[in-house]
């Protein structure tokens, strides 16, 4: 279940899917994606004065549950949830960019169009919006990689991909594929290991069917991904072309992947926070600390770099030292953060991704043509049975 607050994603544009499942969130509101005048961060991150969901409240809840459950599998799971969200603060927001700006690297693009006044002039701290286009393209990439990575078909063995494909076949609406055929196929597959020894022709036809089916999900996904890839590019342009728009996309801001120039800095900051908060929880579990301390120390990291004091008492000024160190040792990557360079890189990446999707689409063919072949082969198998 995807919940924006668990990844500090910007909920801008999320529609109400709570009718599909009560655990999905309601439609986004203007208030939750507005700027908190006290910090310059968008409200859904850590402004708990409204009735919207915040990542800060989520982290607090998970930490309290972890502390209460002790060092048990459940306790560790809640701790993992909280630490994951703290990590995402660095990889999904413009925190590192704003940090470098504060340190005087004024060429770094802030991923915000203009400064706001409160409480001192600063660019707003935002995270990327993970709208349905970004979600579907990311999922399509992952699924595509998993399916194409599955092993070659071994006669007489039902592979993991065949299991997945059976599940997917069952999701094809009955107007396209008669589900009775799919159920019969499943029964046949169950007997196949024995059967194929005495009926080599049937074995070959089922092999053929497996090959067709292994292409089918990719063909469907490729067709969908092509449509969504274009929409992602549109969402990216929507931010770049509108100076009053606060909401870049997930793919514009995300430092999740090691090809982003700031990946290592974001990861290093996240690891240090995880080390600190993990240590504090371990203290609570062994009777050496309080959960109030853990919550306070964790939530202090949801902060705009402009509000971090260059003093030992702040407890966060180490991030300046880490960022200075990174900037000293990565002058070439620093240049990649200039507006022209980073936008150029993203458009190139988006174009390459689109080209990959298009090539895959051509390799797999149109889903309709594959479905026709699947139907034909199923009928052939039925004729033999
Ligand atoms: Zn996440």
UniProtKB/TrEMBL annotation:
The record ties this protein, via Pfam families, to: Het-C (PF07217)
Positions of the region Disordered?
1-21
Recorded hits in InterPro entries, A to Z, give: Het-C (IPR010816), VWA7 (IPR052577)
Please report the name of this protein according to its UniProt entry.
Answer: Uncharacterized protein
**Source species of the chain:** Cystobacter fuscus (strain ATCC 25194 / DSM 2262 / NBRC 100088 / M29)
């Amino acid at each position: 279940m995807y919940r924006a607050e668990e990844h500090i994603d910007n909920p801008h544009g999320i529609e109400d899917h709570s009718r599909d499942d009560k655990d999905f969130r309601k439609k986004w509101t203007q208030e939750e994606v507005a700027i908190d005048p006290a910090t310059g961060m968008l409200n859904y991150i850590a402004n708990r004065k409204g009735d919207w969901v915040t990542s800060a409240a989520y982290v607090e809840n998970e930490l309290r549950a972890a502390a209460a459950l002790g060092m048990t599998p459940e306790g560790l799971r809640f701790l993992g949830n909280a630490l994951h969200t703290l990590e995402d603060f660095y990889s999904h927001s413009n925190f590192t960019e704003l940090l470098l700006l504060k340190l005087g690297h004024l060429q770094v693009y802030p991923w915000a169009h203009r400064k706001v006044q409160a409480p001192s002039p600063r660019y707003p701290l935002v995270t990327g919006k993970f709208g349905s286009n970004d979600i579907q393209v990311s999922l399509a990439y992952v699924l595509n990689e998993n399916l194409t990575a599955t092993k070659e078909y071994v006669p007489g063995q039902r592979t993991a991909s065949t299991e997945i494909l059976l599940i997917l076949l069952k999701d094809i609406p009955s107007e396209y594929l008669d589900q009775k055929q799919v159920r019969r196929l499943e029964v046949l597959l169950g007997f196949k290991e024995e059967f194929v020894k005495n009926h080599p022709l049937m074995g070959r036809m089922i092999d053929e069917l497996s090959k067709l089916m292994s292409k089918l999900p990719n063909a469907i996904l490729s067709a969908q991904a092509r449509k969504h890839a274009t929409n992602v590019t549109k969402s990216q342009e929507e931010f770049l072309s509108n100076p009053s728009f606060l909401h870049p996309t997930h793919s514009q801001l995300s430092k999740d992947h090691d090809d982003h120039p700031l990946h290592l800095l974001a990861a290093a900051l996240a690891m240090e926070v995880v080390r600190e908060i993990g240590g504090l929880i371990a203290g609570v579990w062994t009777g050496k600390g309080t959960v109030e301390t853990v919550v306070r120390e964790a939530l202090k990291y949801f902060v705009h770099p402009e509000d971090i004091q260059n003093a030992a008492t702040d407890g966060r000024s180490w991030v300046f030292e880490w960022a200075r160190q990174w900037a000293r040792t990565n002058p070439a990557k620093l240049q990649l953060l200039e507006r022209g360079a980073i936008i150029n890189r993203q458009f190139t990446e988006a174009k390459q991704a689109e080209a990959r999707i298009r090539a895959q689409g051509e390799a797999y063919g149109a889903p309709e043509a594959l479905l026709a072949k699947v139907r034909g082969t199923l009928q052939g198998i039925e004729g033999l049975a």
